[in-house]
């Protein structure tokens, strides 16, 4: 009879594999689209991806603050990543997703993104020039074989950015 393992053990094993802790080459990054921009996040920092729930608007906040979401009884502050970057607001439709980024770092923060792209392997990307006005949490850039430009988002640095945490209008 096959050995039974608990769901927790399986999730721990799967998380370790996805985070690239094994010696073999693995994807290690997740790709997202925010407006017309493409972003890469470390799987270990990316958190959970959930379909867009109903967002509760919060008065007297900046336009890029999308609201508060209730995810399984926990409240998350939701930032529209595209709008935060000074671009168009993310349409809230069936392809939009919330990326719960702060839980690992002690913050219930989420990013509203246009869509999830999927796993990316860093070895399949070519380093590219970084924009001169790039924030400290986006100081790496790459291009893929299709010529798309990808910025790498450092979650911990984003969560420590004063502008990101200052939602008051």
Topology:
Blueprint: H1 7-18, E1 28-34, E2 37-42, H2 43-46, E3 48-51, E4 65-71, E5 74-80, H3 81-84, E6 97-100, E7 109-113, E8 115-121, E9 126-127, E10 140-143, E11 149-152, H4 155-159, H5 162-165
Structure report:
With 169 residues, the protein is α+β, with helices and mostly antiparallel strands. 17% of the residues lie in helices and 34% in strands. A 6-stranded mixed sheet has the order 8-1-2-11-10-9. The longest helix is centred in the N-terminal third of the chain and has 12 residues, at 7-18. The protein starts with 6 loop residues before the first helix and ends with a helix.
Which descriptors would you attach to this protein?
single chain, 169 residues, alpha+beta, 6-stranded mixed beta sheet, 5-stranded mixed beta sheet, 5 helices, 17% helix, 34% strand, globular
Poorly predicted residue ranges: 21-25
Question: Biggest sheet, open or closed, and with what strands and sense?
Answer: 6 strands, mixed
Question: What topology, given as strand order, has the largest sheet?
Answer: 8-1-2-11-10-9
- Gross morphology is globular
Question: What is the number of helices?
Answer: 5
| Classification by helices and strands | alpha+beta
Radius of gyration: 17 Å
Oligomer: single chain
Question: Which percent range describes the beta-strand content?
Answer: 25-35%
Number of strands: 11
